[in-house]
Design goal:
single chain; 205 residues; mainly alpha; globular
Length: 205
């Protein structure tokens, strides 16, 4: 399976040995965020990156954007789902995982757009072994380098209202840093429940 259970840290996604890993770039990404926002709060002391590192990092961020755009263009309800397309999509996701922290600016942009692709209810249900593209991408965050991935998820949680998304990020944060983000998790759950109750109320008006 592409995604394993998040019941323990041993359930992390394994990236094949031949998947591209931007190990020399994402360490600098943790020090120098692409722009202010969700991805900008995890760095400590920032070092001045060399022009070559800047070039590599910019290229990797652009590659992450293209991978996400490719995944976001999927529409299982209108496009035939084949073994080849499933394999290609999962390879794109693995490549995105290999980019590690340098992919955070591109992921931030995607999450802020509120764009999504739903995979359930048809032959594409298990296209990425997740019900939606947002869920699939959120699962990737669990395997990015700490503590930046935790800080990114904590800020992301503050913007979520969907119960499934809140539950996933809350579970990942609790596994990564038990009780450290408990107050934030409680606030997100309450916000999600309040929104659900208001929607139910409107439906009965």
């Amino acid at each position: 399976m592409l995604f394993r259970s998040f019941a323990s840290r041993s359930g992390r996604l394994e990236v094949p040995g031949d998947a591209p890993v931007a190990s020399d770039v994402h360490s600098e990404a943790a020090q120098k965020p692409d722009r202010p926002g969700i991805a900008s709060g995890g760095a400590g002391v920032r070092r001045k990156a060399s022009p070559e590192i800047d070039r590599q990092r910019s290229a990797a961020i652009e590659r992450a954007r293209r991978l996400i755009d490719g995944l976001a263009s999927l529409d299982p309800s209108t496009q035939p789902v084949t073994e080849a397309s499933i394999s290609e999509c999962r390879q794109q996701l693995l490549e995105l995982a290999g980019l590690n922290l340098v992919a955070l600016p591109a992921l931030e942009e995607f999450f802020q757009r509120r764009q999504d692709v739903r995979f359930e209810g048809g032959s594409g249900t298990n296209l990425l072994e997740a019900s939606t593209l947002r869920i699939a991408l959120m699962k990737l965050l669990f395997d990015f380098s700490a503590p930046d991935n935790e800080q990114f998820q904590a800020r992301l949680l503050g913007s979520l209202t969907d119960p499934d998304e809140v539950s996933l990020i809350a579970r990942q944060l609790e596994i990564a840093a038990p009780r450290q983000y408990l107050d934030l998790i409680v606030q997100a759950v309450r916000r999600s429940l309040q929104l659900a109750r208001s929607e139910i109320g409107r439906a009965h008006v």
